[in-house]
UniProtKB/TrEMBL annotation, chain A:
Family note: Belongs to the ubiquitin-conjugating enzyme family.
GO MF term (any one): ubiquitin conjugating enzyme activity
ATP-binding in keyword set: yes
Transmembrane segments: none
Organism (species): Elliptochloris bilobata
InterPro entries, sorted: UBA, UBA-like_sf, UBC, UBQ-conjugating_AS, UBQ-conjugating_enzyme/RWD
Protein name stated in the entry: E2 ubiquitin-conjugating enzyme
E.C. number: 2.3.2.23
Taxonomic path: Eukaryota, Viridiplantae, Chlorophyta, core chlorophytes, Trebouxiophyceae
Location of the active site: C102 (glycyl thioester intermediate)
UBC core domain residues: 17-164
Top-level taxon of origin: Eukaryota
Database matches in PROSITE patterns: UBA (PS50030), UBC_1 (PS00183), UBC_2 (PS50127)
SMART domains: UBA, UBCc
From TrEMBL, chain B:
PROSITE patterns listed in its UniProt record: TRIAD
Residue ranges with Low complexity bias: 576-599
UniProt keyword annotation of Lipid biosynthesis present: no
Record bears the keyword DNA repair: no
Catalyzed reaction equations: [E2 ubiquitin-conjugating enzyme]-S-ubiquitinyl-L-cysteine + [acceptor protein]-L-lysine = [E2 ubiquitin-conjugating enzyme]-L-cysteine + [acceptor protein]-N(6)-ubiquitinyl-L-lysine
Domain RING-type residues, every copy: 136-349
MF-aspect GO terms: ubiquitin protein ligase activity; zinc ion binding
Annotated keywords: Metal-binding, Repeat, Transferase, Ubl conjugation pathway, Zinc, Zinc-finger
Protein name as annotated: RBR-type E3 ubiquitin transferase
Cited InterPro entries: Ariadne, ARIH1-like_UBL, E3_UB_ligase_RBR, IBR_dom, TRIAD_supradom, Znf_C3HC4_RING-type, Znf_RING/FYVE/PHD
GO biological process: protein ubiquitination
Organism in which the protein naturally occurs: Elliptochloris bilobata
Amino acid sequence: MHCAARQTAPVACAEMFDLGRIQKELREIERDKTSGVTVQLNGSSLQRLTGFVEGPRDTPYENGYFVVDIQLDDQYPFVPPKMRFISKVYHPNVSSANGAICLDILKDQWSPALTLKTALLSLQALLSSPEPDDPQDAVVARQYLTDHATFVRTARMWTENFAHRSQAATEDEKVTKLADMGFSRVDAIAALQSTANDENAALELLLSAA
Amino acid sequence: MGTPHDCGAYSVERMMEDMYDYDSGYSEGEEEPSSDEAGMDFLDGECTTRTHHAQPTRWLLIDAKKLLQVQEEALASVMAILGCSRSTARSLLMHFRWNTETLFGMMAERGLDDLYRAARITSRSAKTPLAPCDAAELACAACLCDVARPDATQMACGHAFCNDCWRQHLAVQISEGRSRRLVCMGVRCGAVCDEEQVRQLLAGEAALLARYERSLLESYVEDNAMTRWCPSVPHCGNAVRVDGEPHCEPECSCGVRFCFSCTEEPHSPCTCEMWKRWKVKCHDDSETKNWLTANTKACPKCGKPVEKNGGCNLVVCMCGQAFCWLCGESTGREHTWTSISGHSCGRYSEETSARVDEAQRNVKRYTHYHLRREAHMSSQKLEAPVKAKLQASIDKLEKNQSTLKDYSWLSTALEQLFHVRRILGYSYVFAFYMFGNDMFREEVTPAQNALNQNLFEDQQQQLEGEVERLSMMTEMTPDRIMEAEDALRLDVINSTVNIDTRLVRLYELLENDLLGALTLGCHYISPYKGQSQLRSGGGVHGLSTAAVGGSLEFPGLGTGAGPSGDGDPTRPASPPVQAATAAGVARAAARAVPRQTQGLGQGSTGSGHRERAALVPGSPSKRMRHDPR
């Protein structure tokens, strides 16, 4: 897995965001109920989406329901989508601080033939088979290799506490509530994250920022 | 010959002076080896040195036009041998950094298929079966649309996408600077796209296509270990390719000379690593201190800062006090440029500094070497206008005079002076690190180090002495040097040859005994190439430089004897010329005295911070008795 920095330069023949492709992708995800990944719209923009990944079975992430923030560039699908876990995940290839993901297909191995669904499925695969030799979170990776039992315990605890389906649902509820007050969903998610999901504190934060 | 000023070394023990208290060296006398023999010696030395370097370093200047040509040559050779397309050849060459030898070596060793696999090229023979072409429509996996077959393109790897998607993909890749590695859009395919197909797809996008082509062209320089862009600012657009030893200091046609290894300014004889450390060290100092230490020196008598305004290192303050520019010590009136009574300031003494603690020692060492380097660099700057002026006069005279006079001896001398100043300057940086017992602590014992330092400083001193002498001679008013009779001319020529000889010796010492003795790590310097390095064209105005190494040849004067010269029937036999040379020099010496006295008068009134400088005629000639080699 590579974590090379990607340069973003303006494209000479930059074209408008390809709505057709993303609509087709969303329809395909909608149709497939068995894969364990879904994508929701965030308001009217098709460039800011929220993905949901079910924790794979027989892993510490089982029964987890992980929320993924998805940003699509104007040049998508010719550049990879930006993905990051909103739910806290205890995993060698996911930053425990900000949810950043180290996965090659989200970086230099991206191909326009891949889709949001395949990318989310890759995230699911990553959850079941971590790559501690190419870590995003060095502390977690070290624990994974040296003290696997503790790692499993912590990962399971994090899954129960931060990625419960009901939690995702309540979180989503809170986000919707805040969004209904006129804040963008993205800001609402960020505010809830930084206030440990305290709805009132998040509202205060949003008001003070506005 | 004089060490006008053995400032290259400063030592408490004066015993060394006796050893090196040799005189003019150009005067007559049987025990004196003539410059002829010196030239021969030097040639022998040069030849043996050359054998250490398997191939002489040559460089090729590549301008915009040439770039296409040399690239095509490399491509053609690969295409001819592998029988592949231009695109494949280019991808292979990029992968092997344009080193055809490695490429062919790998092919012979591992076979063609491995070669292609390493460069991620899908050769036609190994490609996956193409998708059925009879279908009228193709489902493009990128835009998820069905497109008519003619609107889609299939790459050699077998993946097909619609042309619109290809175009967008290529646009993103090119704009992100990945023109040289445009790969297929297929999931984890990574096969390099064919050049011609890319051109066809981008046919309508002139700007992108131009960027793509330019990037491919520049790959020859940027992905090539043996080629570098000229570091000039603003960039002149040229590149330099080196064949053979990569340690050299090529000069671009824009006038910029640079070290090929690190693309910094030329810094031979100090190594790239030394120069890197030195620069960091210099930047630590405040600029003001730099300026003051570099440009002024307190007069030992009145204490006023004195700025040097001439190339010579012997200065006289407004108050009348003469002092040595290198060490700042008063030297007295008897301080002439041929002999300095009891003055030797350049040798760095371990003994005196042993008393001070380590930190202080380091500061002192640094200042010592820094000042001496700066002195030579500023001399070089101050000598530049003199050089330009003289060169202008030469050009004018050569144009106007009906009887064509040959002034190449003077041009060569000026060129030599310019380059040797730089070398001397950097030799102090070299000395700072070489003998500092820091960089090579594990490899050189203190005793060996002291011995090395002595050897080095002896040679450096001798070279410095000769350089100051030549500087002195060239600073005479242009009129006088232009109408110079044979004697003065011979003196200048002798001095030039002498400097060349000493430089070769110095470099031999550096390359073979100092750096060559080190076993850990790699320390290389650009070798001294003699005069042939200064002029790429070889012979100029009847002056021919020997093809190998740096021998100077002055036909008809007999000061040099090239390897080919022995059998030359047109050349006078050696002994008579030798005598003539010696006699000529003696005449020059005799005539030089009144002139110098006159020069003193001028010097004290105006520009001259220089002390009286004169040849000492008829003094018992003591040629260097001790050869450090």
